[in-house]
Write a structure and sequence with these properties.
alpha/beta, 8-stranded parallel β-sheet, 8 strands, about 35% helix, about 15% strand, globular, binds zinc ion
Length: about 270
């Protein structure tokens, strides 16, 4: 694999000793992931797998300063994102502004399964507006969640209406959208401002039409990702190698699309 990559989503859980969570029934090897303490150690590990830059989601407040320091040191290699709880309303909006200004956060991570409300619900609206105002991306899960919560709220079709109301928003679906692959593809085709972070589902389980979409009409929409520690970089790259993505889509898929979606001048070398 020669094309260097941006990992479009990593969770700050790699900073934690205990990486077992609500998805360990799906990913039996999660408990063996090593803790990564140091930003150079992280970049080395990425580098060994041909990954030159990454988006890191701050999953807990205690990791905000680590991610922000890493970003300050390597602004073109590490881009901070943050998990958002829309149920906290105005308090959470204020936190978003604070994290954006203080920690350099450039993406809001919102997993609808946690709140059991679909992306069209009014609870999310202020966050779409704020992301447009700050000119930062919103990344939201699409597809059956790993954790055992009801999945219907993550049907990709809901993002169709969000994109209609917010054409200025850079909206990133994550987690591949299964089992609603057709809905994901249609929604991605319908709007210029929606992307897919192809993370958290091992490439060997991607449906045929999903891979075909990466290679053809979706070539400017689909982005490499792992949601490490969920999927390891070794596994993602190995399995992607055997998919034999077309030559002309590789730099789009592995880094160019992410640069556009996150509006980020990343350095993948
Ligand atoms: Zn996930």
């Amino acid at each position: 694999m020669s094309v260097r990559a941006i990992d479009s989503l990593i969770n700050s859980h790699f900073l934690d000793k205990n990486q077992e969570g609500t998805t360990s029934y799906l990913f039996k090897d999660l408990k063996y992931r090593r803790k990564i303490d140091d930003v150079d150690q992280l970049l080395n590990q990425l580098n060994e797998n041909g990954v030159g830059a990454c988006v890191i989601s701050i999953m807990e407040e205690k990791y905000a300063s680590w991610v922000s320091q890493a970003h300050n040191r390597y602004p073109r290699k590490i881009l901070p994102a943050m998990i958002v709880d829309p149920r906290r309303n105005l308090k959470e909006i204020q936190k978003v502004v604070h994290y954006h200004e203080t920690y350099g956060v450039r993406c809001l991570r919102i997993p609808p399964f946690r709140y059991m409300l679909p992306p069209t619900d009014r609870i999310y609206w202020p966050f779409y507006v704020k992301a447009c105002e700050l000119n930062i991306a919103v990344s939201m899960n699409a597809g059956m969640p790993g954790p055992r919560n009801p999945g219907w709220v993550q049907n990709p079709i809901y993002y169709d209406e969000v994109a209609f109301h917010f054409p200025e928003l850079r909206l990133i679906m994550s987690h591949c959208g299964q089992p609603w692959t057709e809905e994901a593809i249609s929604t991605l085709l319908h709007w210029d401002n929606i992307f897919m972070s192809c993370c958290a589902v091992a490439p060997k389980y991607w449906p045929e039409q999903f891979i075909h979409f990466i290679n053809t009409r979706g070539k400017e929409k689909m982005m490499f990702g792992t949601e490490y520690p969920t999927i390891t970089w070794e596994r993602a790259r190995t399995e992607l190698n055997s998919l034999n993505l077309r030559e002309n889509v590789q730099s789009l898929f592995f880094n160019e699309n992410a640069k556009r979606a996150y509006n980020w001048d990343a350095d993948v070398n």
